[in-house]
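pinned: reference chain
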Amino acid sequence: MGALGETPNTVLGERIERSQQFRTVVEMAMTFTQVGQQDWALTIDAVPRTDIERWQCLAEIACRIAGLTIIETRTPPPFVLSEDEKREIFEEAGRVMAARQRKLDEIPFSTPFRAFADDFED
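pinned: its structure tokens
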């Protein structure tokens, strides 16, 4: 996206990979940012269970091919939820889904559906 030499903290490009199974879920987002005149950062954000090592390896290869020197790499420890946090998230998801289902149940049949009502009466 951007051009070299722009002001610091300029996003130069990003790549987003979506889940093969659930296309609306982003599995990995990679952002290339200029942080100084001759310094850049490549950040990889991924959801749990993503093969982060694969993305790190591909990013490192691409950086070296582009002629960049890798000075430092950091991998934060995995984010782990406690059983109480998992249960709380699961319960909240259940409440949200139930509320949405109630809203769907409240939608009245529109006129086009009423036109077919006789076809389904016994």
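why pinned: The mean pLDDT is 79. The longest strand covers residues 10-18.
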